[in-house]
Each structure stands twice: as structure tokens, then as C-alpha cells.
Design goal:
The protein has 381 residues and is mainly beta. Helix content is 9%, strand content 40%. The protein has three domains: 35-157, Immunoglobulin-like; 165-258, Sandwich (Immunoglobulin-like), CATH 2.60.40; 261-378, no CATH class. The strands form five sheets. Strands 19, 20, 21, 22, 23, 24, 25, 26, 27 and 28 form a ten-stranded antiparallel beta sheet that branches. Strand 23 and strand 24 form a beta hairpin. The radius of gyration is 31 Å and the shape is flat. The termini are far apart.
């Protein structure tokens, strides 16, 4: 009986060992999948802002074959076929995806596809050959299995979504290298603005073509405070200095206002909205600079001009960063002075008293219209 029990136990162990050594975990493998081209897409296609809500293309693809019966996640990937055939600077998207489990389809509107085109570093508003493919992902990021479908190439012409610009060009100078004004969004042509340093001389406004190029610009002369397209008369800047230049291509008006620039607020001395500590302009970097002690935990801001009615107030949010450049924006007029008298940016550190301060090199760049920034750099000296 004991021998029978021993033999049975031995047989069980052998069978168990054999079973374990022959059990195999599922092995994933990249076996590919196909993206099908939408036959309804006309090539070349022209995207229009007025048709932004219309479906541009329906993309469908097969289930990624990973060698196992598991569902992958997907993103659409686009790239410039001619400039970037290896998808090095590609843009990924889930615009228009059917979010149902394993749906494997996307209906992308003209507006969304144009947004993707604008994100390509080589985007231009001429006809482009665009490669589209789908990337699948199985598993977590560190050990994920990625696969790519076949690419589908579409000839398409998008439209720029960058801010419309004007150049304020001194007679005899290059428009491309001249100071710029920008509108508030890509559809608006009524409120161009630019803060710029101008030499004395005669100037005209240059509007680039639809692609933002100045090779064949529309040129505006002036008559009093009115813009005149193709007008022969230039505007004369009599004094070299800093100016806020505004233009409206619908009303055909413009204005120039001289300004000084500085920092103000509760973190600075002297206090009060009407006071300003002037900053110094660096012509080479086109930035305003100042070394100043700011009171920890108190607020500050920037403005052009002096007194209680400045040309412009610039606001920021949160605590000023000492490690990166931060954005500031112009306060819309009419503004309530009491809302901005202390400033809107908090100086780093906790407030202790008026004598607890930190020294900074403050650098402000308002030379890029509608993209204004400041930096706080710790000054140990």
C-alpha cells in the first residue's frame, strides 16, 4: 500500500511538473493593421474656416493584431509627407474619435484637421501633402507595444490660425525685419496693437498676404489719422522713442502713443498705483530691465506711462516664477484702477514685514505683440 502511495505521488509530481513546463504565457507580437482611406475625400482638398464644423474625413482602421485577443488604444498621427516622411515631428490627435470600446473610427471636421495642420512645424497655407496613420498602444507606457498602420496621403490646403499681423515699416526698410502689430485673434482685423521702439522717420503700414508673407504686401499710407490703402503719404515719427501703435483695418484708423515703462505695486517702493519705478530699455534684446528688491509676498505689476491714467496696465497671475518665463496680458480698458493698484503678481516668499525683501533682475519683453512676458532672476549681489 505504501509503495502504491509513493508511486501515485511520484506520478502526480511528474504530471504537475510536465504541465508547468508546457504552460505558455500568451506572447504579444506586432502583426500590423490597416487604415482605410475615405473615398469621399477630394484631393486636393481646401479647408475653409466657414466650413469648420463640416466633416472633412472619416477614418476607419482594422483592429491592431497584437497576437493576443486584447483591445488596443489608438491615436491618429499626421505628418508633412514631403518635409517629414519619417514622422519625426508628427502631431497626434483623438479629434472626432468614436469613444465606444474598440470602435476604431474617427470623423474629423475641417476645423479640427486644420488645427492639426497648424501644429506642424512646416505648416504653410499652400497645398500640402499630409501623411495620416494610426498608432495603436497595448499595455502601460513603460512596457507598451506600439504599432502603426499604413500611411494614407492626402493633398490638402489649410488656413493659418496665427494672429493677423501688420508691419510698421520705415521708408526704405524691410517689412520682415520691422516692428509688428498683432490682432487679438485670427478672425479679427480691427484691433491691431504693438509696443515698439521707433526711430524718427517716415513710416507706412504693411499687411502680409494670406500666408503671412511680405513678398507681395498691401501697403497703407495715411491721410491725417486715416489709413489709405496704396496711399503715397507716410506717417512721420518726429521723435525717436517708445510707442504703442494701434490700427483698425475695418475703420481704417490708426494711432501712436508715446510711453515710458516700469514696475509698480505693493511689493515695490514707492507704493501706490500712481507711482512707477522706471525700467531701462535694452535695444539689443528689445527688453525692459531693472534690478530691484521686492517685498516678499506682496504684489506687483507693470504699466506704461506714469500717473493715475497710464497708457496700459499689464497683469499676471499667481506667484512670480524664478525658474521660467511667465506671461502677462494687457488689462482691457476701461479698467478700474482700484482693482490693479497693488499689482496682480505675487512676489515669491511669505510676507513678514516691509523690510523682508529679495533682490531680482526683472526682465520684461513686450516686443512680441499679444505675447508679452516677464522673468524674475535672483540677484545674489
Amino acid at each position: 500500500m505504501k509503495n502504491i502511495l509513493k508511486i501515485s505521488t511520484l506520478l502526480f509530481a511528474i504530471i504537475t511538473l510536465w504541465s508547468c513546463t508546457n504552460d505558455k504565457d500568451p506572447v504579444v507580437s506586432a502583426n500590423g493593421f490597416e487604415l482605410r482611406k475615405d473615398a469621399s475625400v477630394v484631393s486636393p482638398s481646401v479647408l475653409l474656416d466657414e466650413n469648420s464644423a463640416s466633416v472633412f474625413s472619416r477614418f476607419e482602421w482594422d483592429r491592431a493584431n497584437n497576437g493576443v485577443a486584447t483591445a488596443s488604444s489608438y491615436v491618429l498621427v499626421i505628418s508633412d509627407h514631403d518635409a517629414d516622411p519619417n514622422f519625426t515631428n508628427a502631431v497626434e490627435s483623438t479629434f472626432g474619435f468614436n469613444l465606444a470600446l474598440d470602435a476604431r473610427e474617427a470623423n474629423i471636421t475641417q476645423g479640427d484637421f486644420n488645427t492639426l495642420l497648424n501644429q506642424l512645424p512646416t505648416f504653410n497655407c499652400n497645398e500640402m501633402n499630409i501623411d495620416v496613420r494610426v498608432k495603436s498602444k497595448l499595455g502601460v507606457s513603460t512596457n507598451a507595444l506600439y504599432q502603426y498602420s499604413n500611411p494614407v496621403t492626402i493633398a490638402v490646403k489649410g488656413y493659418p490660425k496665427t494672429l493677423p499681423i501688420l508691419a510698421f515699416v520705415k521708408d526704405g526698410s524691410s517689412a520682415s525685419n520691422s516692428a509688428k502689430l498683432a490682432s487679438v485673434d485670427y478672425k479679427t482685423f480691427t484691433n491691431y496693437e504693438g509696443y515698439m521702439y521707433l526711430e524718427a522717420g517716415d513710416y507706412k503700414f504693411y499687411k502680409p498676404d494670406a500666408c503671412g508673407e511680405f513678398s507681395n504686401p498691401s501697403i497703407y499710407g495715411v491721410s491725417g489719422n486715416t489709413l489709405v490703402q496704396a496711399g503715397p503719404t507716410s506717417y512721420t515719427v518726429t521723435t525717436t522713442g517708445h510707442y504703442l501703435v494701434k490700427a483698425d483695418l475695418v475703420a481704417n484708423t490708426f494711432s501712436l502713443t508715446s510711453y515710458s515703462f516700469g514696475i509698480f505695486g505693493a511689493a515695490t517702493r514707492p507704493f501706490g498705483f500712481a507711482n512707477i519705478t522706471p525700467m531701462v530699455y535694452d535695444v539689443a534684446s528689445k527688453t525692459w530691465k531693472l534690478t530691484i528688491e521686492l517685498i516678499n509676498g506682496k504684489k506687483f505689476g507693470f504699466k506704461t506711462g506714469n500717473g493715475s491714467t497710464p497708457v496700459s496696465i499689464f497683469k499676471g497671475t499667481g506667484t512670480g516664477s524664478t525658474t521660467e518665463t511667465s506671461p502677462i496680458t494687457v488689462v482691457p480698458t476701461p479698467y478700474v484702477a482700484a482693482d490693479y493698484g497693488d499689482g496682480t503678481i505675487k512676489a515669491p516668499g511669505d510676507y513678514v514685514d516691509l523690510n523682508t525683501k529679495t533682490k531680482y533682475d526683472v526682465i520684461v519683453d513686450i516686443s512680441n505683440p499679444r505675447n508679452y512676458t516677464y522673468q524674475l532672476v535672483l540677484n545674489p549681489n
